[in-house]
Design goal:
alpha/beta; Spore Coat Polysaccharide Biosynthesis Protein SpsA, Chain A; four-stranded mixed β-sheet
């Protein structure tokens, strides 16, 4: 992002991070929100909390890796049955994504928003030679939210000794099955300036309350 903190990049006159936090703040299905930020961004997060009247929000510093930050966030939670972990760089969180995820996790104990892959995926060697064409109808691209039983996700992160790229992987290492539920094509992750440009196109058409 050229040195810009994407979480505080402007998206239709408010920080990108505020989109998903606002969605959780106004959703009656969400009881607590823990916002995990770098040490240097905590004061900025506190100001944003005050400006936007985020009554459900608590803040804590993260760690050097994503999994360390999630672990710190989990330690701040009290008296909850389910934990929804969402990436602040995905601004277009909807009530439907939250509601559908909670319905699914109530049945299965662990669930992840995901979309079926449309492209043909090739497994390559270290020399970029195709080794295998993967069966597309069984491939999904995961998103967040990823939602879990509180005890399961807590034990998964407290016992984790290797690096994982998402929360589902941590739970899988405990031997639990993680169910996929249908995500949303608009639920994109902002990683590059090109992603932010696309997010601004989506934001102009966004129907939810600011």
């Amino acid at each position: 992002m050229g040195g810009v903190n994407k979480l505080f990049a402007s998206l239709r006159a408010k920080p990108l991070l505020a989109w998903s936090v606002d969605a959780c703040q106004r959703c009656d299905l969400v009881g607590q929100i823990i916002l995990v930020l770098n040490d240097k961004d905590l004061a900025r997060g506190q100001r944003l909390k005050k400006e936007r009247n985020w009554s459900k929000v608590g803040l804590c510093p993260g760690g050097p890796r994503r999994q360390d930050s999630v672990r710190e966030g989990l330690r701040q939670l009290r008296h909850c049955d389910w934990v929804m972990i969402h990436d602040g760089a995905r601004p277009f969180l909807t009530r439907d994504l939250i509601e559908d995820g909670l319905k699914t996790v109530d049945e299965f104990g662990a669930t992840v928003a995901a979309l079926p892959i449309k492209d043909t995926i090739k497994l390559a060697s270290s020399r970029n030679l195709i080794r295998e064409t993967l069966q597309r109808d069984r491939l999904w691209a995961t998103q967040t939210p990823q939602i879990f039983n509180f005890d399961i996700i807590t034990r998964a992160y407290e016992s984790l000794t290797t690096e994982v790229t998402d929360d589902a992987a941590a739970v899988e290492r405990l031997g639990y099955k993680v169910h996929l539920y249908l995500g949303d094509h608009r639920n994109m992750k902002v990683t590059t300036p090109e992603d932010l440009a696309l997010a601004r196109v989506i934001a102009r058409k966004w129907k939810q309350k600011d």
